[in-house]
Amino acid sequence: MNDPDLHITFEKAVKSINDHTEPFPADVLLKLYAYYKRATGNDQTPSGSKPLINAFKANALFQTRELTQDEAKQLYIEAVNHYFLYRK
After folding, report:
1. What global pTM score does this model have?
2. Is a pLDDT exceeding 80 seen at residue 88?
């Protein structure tokens, strides 16, 4: 997939997640969080009021540290597709 197509598909995947109203499993949320942060270049250490949640987020980001933005976009798309395909 070339870069413009990848970006469009990524944006559609993000929209499908944002539009989804049912709760997500925690492992799916962490994976999507890390891929999204890497894909958008906004991958600073999490800061929030809940240290345990921040630790899980930091670990998820650490596990994706070697990904390029395009690789993270592709993995985000795949994770979204997998979630919606197998959640039924």
Report:
1. 0.90
2. no
